[in-house]
Amino acid sequence: MKPIYLDGMTTTPVDPQVLAAMLPYFSDRPGNASNRAHAYGWEAAAAIEHARETIATAIHAHPAEIIFTSSATEADNLAIKGVAEAYYSRGRHIITVQTEHNAVLAPCRYLESLGFRVTYLGVNEKGFIDLAELEQAFTNETILVSVMAANNEIGVLQPLAEIGRRCRERGVLFHTDAAQALGKIPLDVQAMQVDLMSLTAHKLYGPKGIGALYVRRDRPRVQLAPQLHGGGQEQGWRSGTLATPLIVGFGTAVQLAQERQGSDIPHLWRLKERLWQGLAALGEIYLNGDWQQSLPNCLNVSIGGVEGNALLRSIYPHVALSTGAACSSEKPTPSHVLLALGRSPALARASLRFGLLRTTTETEVDFALQQIRHSIQELRQRR
Ligand SMILES: *Cc1c(COP(=O)(O)O)cnc(C)c1O
C-alpha cells in the first residue's frame, strides 16, 4: 500500500476538474496566444484572458496587473530582482524576514553580492514579525519590503494590512509571497496595500510549472526590470510563449477554490483539530507556529524524546509528510524557520509538517495518528 499523502504544503494533486479543463489545450486547441492571425490563436488568447480575469478577481486586482510566470519562484525573483534593478538609483536597501522561502531569501542574498543591503527581520516564538522592528528597519534607502502571506513550514499568517500601511506611508514598495495563501485565506491587494504578490498553482490543486506575479499599475505604478527578454509577452515583463494548458488549469483551480471555500476551509480546520488533539495526547508535543493566525491545512509539531531521523524512517512507509529538516544531505540540517522561532536544533529536526488536502478524510487522519503514535512510543521506549 502506498503511504497516505499528507504532504499538501509541498504540493497538491491536480483536481480532476482542473485536469479536464486543461486537456483540450494540449491537443485540440494548439494555438499560440501571441499569434492572432487565425482562430487557434484567438481561442488560446481568450482562454488565457479568462484565467487571468479569474485570478485577478480572486485577489481584487485588475487583469492587466497579472503576469504569468513559470512558478512562484520565478515570480519572487522577478519581483525582487526586477524592483532592485528598476529602483537602485533611489536606494539599495531591502527588508525581508528570516523565515521567508528560499525563493525570496536567495535573490536577496544575490542582491547583497551586488552591493544591496538587506535587513532580515527576526520573528517571535510563534513566527510573527514585530511591526515596531519593521518600522525601525526603514531607512531613506529602503525600496522594497518582502514579507510572505503564509509560511510554507508553519502556516503562520503575517499581518499584511499592517505591513502594507507602513510601507505605503513611506513610499516603499510591498511584495508578498502568497504561494501558500491563495485559495486558503482572503487576499485583497487593495485593502492590504500590496504592490507585488507572488502566486503559484500547484499548492491549490493546479498544475506544477505555472505561477503569476501581481504588479500594481497605479498608485503607485510599479516599475520592473524584466528578467527574461525575448518576444515581449506579458507587457514585456516576461517573455516566452504562454503555457495555455497550465494557465487554464491555474484559472480553473482558483475558480474551484473560491466555489469550495465554504466547505473546504471548515473541513480542513476540523481535520487539523483532530490531528492536533490526537498528537497532543502523546505528551511532549510542541506546536510550531500559532493556532489562530494560521493556515487551515497546515500543522507543524516538534516531538520531544525522539530522534528526528529515526522518527521519519519509521513513519515514511505509512505516511508521506515533510519534516523540519532539509534531507538533501546525509546529515540533515534543521529548518531555518524552526530555528528562527527559537527551537533547539534537536526539536527542529524532530518535527513533522502535515499538509492536509481537501480530499483528506477523518479515517486517513486516524490511520496516520495510529502509525505516528506507534512509532513515537517505540522510539521513546528505547530512550
Ligand atoms: C511552494 C512555494 C514557493 C515556490 O513555488 P514554486 O511555484 O514551486 O516555485 C515559494 N514560496 C512559498 C511560500 C511556497 O510555499
Task: Describe the model.
It is a single chain. The protein has 383 residues and is α/β, with parallel strands linked by helices. It has two domains: 4-11 and 261-381, Aspartate Aminotransferase, domain 1 (Alpha-Beta Complex), CATH 3.90.1150.10; 16-255, Aspartate Aminotransferase, domain 2, CATH 3.40.640. It contains eleven helices and 15 strands. It has helices at 16-22, 39-58, 72-87, 102-113, 131-137, 160-170, 244-280, 308-315, 336-340, 345-349, 362-381; strands at residues 4-5, 66-69, 93-97, 117-121, 142-146, 173-177, 196-200, 211-215, 285-287, 298-303, 319-320, 322-323, 325-326, 333-334, 351-355. The strands form four sheets. Strands 2-8-7-6-5-3-4 form a seven-stranded mixed β-sheet, sandwiched between helices. Helix 1 (16-22) runs antiparallel to helix 7, helix 3 runs parallel beside helix 4 and helix 8 (308-315) crosses helix 11 (362-381). The model has no long low-confidence stretch (mean pLDDT 96).
Describe the protein's topology:
Blueprint: E1 4-5, H1 16-22, H2 39-58, E2 66-69, H3 72-87, E3 93-97, H4 102-113, E4 117-121, H5 131-137, E5 142-146, H6 160-170, E6 173-177, E7 196-200, E8 211-215, H7 244-280, E9 285-287, E10 298-303, H8 308-315, E11 319-320, E12 322-323, E13 325-326, E14 333-334, H9 336-340, H10 345-349, E15 351-355, H11 362-381
Parallel strand pairs: 1-11, 3-4, 3-5, 5-6, 6-7
Antiparallel strand pairs: 2-8, 7-8, 9-10, 10-15, 12-15, 13-14
The structure holds pyridoxal-5'-phosphate.
Pyridoxal-5'-phosphate binds at residues 71-73, 101, 103, 148, 152, 177, 179-180, 200, 203, 211.
